[in-house]
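User: Design a sequence. Structure:
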């Protein structure tokens, strides 16, 4: 049975991921190896493995970084406590936090200065959420779902604000925000939505893909929040969906009975992995490929100061 492959547009790397990877590569080129990176620079196995081969060392605890080292913060951002500790230790620091995550940090700081407590909508344990929650020592609450809201024990319901993780499901977050507003009518929202353009565009593109394809393969690593959300969005549209780190994880049996297959990739997944998936699918019955029309993204962020090439 001939199969046709449809490719989502946009897919793959976003501006924040490009910048984060370039930050590590520029630091390696300028200062030589090793370069220490706190947490995976972006949540993708292929990216992390290739940077390890070039001399990056990924750590979680600053105690694992020798004095005098160069240290990079990952795209997900860090808490104020980590930032201060790193500065005190005297590392040469480059901050690869995505500017759109930094925007959320600045919202938190500003609203805490206005003496508002902040509700962070996000996934517990995700490094971005830890970094955002860690922008203030007090007055921060985490909400993962609508069910968490009645449990919140805030000091003053009239002095509340919310922010969100940048890589959430747009639909789920809309529900949580509506429930927050119903429970705390005086809560104020960020000046501009925190879910980033890349997350929104990729979720819209996968919805478009789900109108045509009956099977969708999302290229992304298990730890990638936005890739997981793409798989969920596809499933909610009634499509069979799998997330794979690379082509070798695709089981040819998944393809049986499907003549229209969709492929997309999370914001941290490199295009080379998508191309390998395409090659694999061509070996298993795909005879035609169509790139769907979608938004062309042309946002880019310069690497941090001190790394040249701005
Ligand atoms: S997914 Fe959004 S917030 Fe995350 S790195 Fe990309 S642009 Fe930045």
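Assistant: Done.
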């Amino acid at each position: 049975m001939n199969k046709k492959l449809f490719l989502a547009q946009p897919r793959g790397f976003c501006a924040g991921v490009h910048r984060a990877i370039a930050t590590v590569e520029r630091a390696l080129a300028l200062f030589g190896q090793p370069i220490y990176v706190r947490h995976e620079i972006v949540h993708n196995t292929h990216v992390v493995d290739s940077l390890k081969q070039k001399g990056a060392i990924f750590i979680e605890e600053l105690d694992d970084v020798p004095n005098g080292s160069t240290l990079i913060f990952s795209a997900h951002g860090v808490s104020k406590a980590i930032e201060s500790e790193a500065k005190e230790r005297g590392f040469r620091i480059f901050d690869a936090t995505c500017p759109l995550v930094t925007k959320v940090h600045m919202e938190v700081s500003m609203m805490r200065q206005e003496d508002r407590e902040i509700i962070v909508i996000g996934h517990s344990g995700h490094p971005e959420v830890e970094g955002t929650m860690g922008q203030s020592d007090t007055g921060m609450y985490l909400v993962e779902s609508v069910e968490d809201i009645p449990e919140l024990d805030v000091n003053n319901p009239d002095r509340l604000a919310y922010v969100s993780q940048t890589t959430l499901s747009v639909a789920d977050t809309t529900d949580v925000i509506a429930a927050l507003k119903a429970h705390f009518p005086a809560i104020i929202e960020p000046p501009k939505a925190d879910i980033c353009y890349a997350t929104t565009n990729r979720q819209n593109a996968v919805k478009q893909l789900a109108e045509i394809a009956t099977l969708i393969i999302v290229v992304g690593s298990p730890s990638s929040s936005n890739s997981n959300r793409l798989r969920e969005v596809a499933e909610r549209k009634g499509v069979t969906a799998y997330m794979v780190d690379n082509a070798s994880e695709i089981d040819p049996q998944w393809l049986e009975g499907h003549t229209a297959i969709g492929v997309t990739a999370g914001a941290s997944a490199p295009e080379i992995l998508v191309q390998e998936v395409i090659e694999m699918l061509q070996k298993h019955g795909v005879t035609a490929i169509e790139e769907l029309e979608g938004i062309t993204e042309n946002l880019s962020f310069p690497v941090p100061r001190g790394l040249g090439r701005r």
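Residues 15-98 form a domain with the Rossmann fold fold (CATH 3.40.50.11270). The first strand starts at residue 3 and ends at 7.
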